[in-house]
Amino acid sequence: LSGVKVDPGDIVRADDTGVIVIPSSLAEEVLKRAKLIEETEQKIIAEVRKGSSLKDARAKLHYHTLQTKEG
């Protein structure tokens, strides 16, 4: 797929905006990170409902770091 290697067991997801391939060796790590992102997004929603701005809530919960290797 456009130069991306896909091996048996890899996870392939696609929609009308694109395709992602998750190597099977990284599937568990990706799932953990996705769950952490979802939990953090729920906390952000709670902060905003309490009156925080979206920008402040995201900064407080370090949302910008969650999709990086260091996050």
Mean pLDDT over the residues: 93
Oligomer: single chain
Rounded to the nearest angstrom, the distance between the terminal CA atoms is 28 Å
The low-confidence runs, each spanning 5 or more residues with pLDDT under 50, are none
Number of helices: 2
Counting helices, strands and paired strands, the structural category is alpha+beta
Report helical residue fraction.
Answer: 40-55%
Notes on the structure:
This protein is of the alpha+beta class. It is built from two helices and two strands, in the order ββαα. The model has no long low-confidence stretch (mean pLDDT 93). The protein starts with 10 loop residues before the first strand and ends in an 11-residue tail after the last helix. Helix content is 42%, strand content 14%. A two-stranded antiparallel sheet has the order 1-2.
Name its key features:
2 strands; alpha+beta; two-stranded antiparallel sheet; 71 residues
Task: Furnish the topology, listing elements before pairings.
Layout: E1 11-15, E2 18-22, H1 27-49, H2 54-60
How would you summarize this macromolecular structure in one to three sentences?
With 71 residues, this protein is α+β, with helices and mostly antiparallel strands. It contains 2 helices and 2 strands. β1 and β2 (18-22) form a beta hairpin.
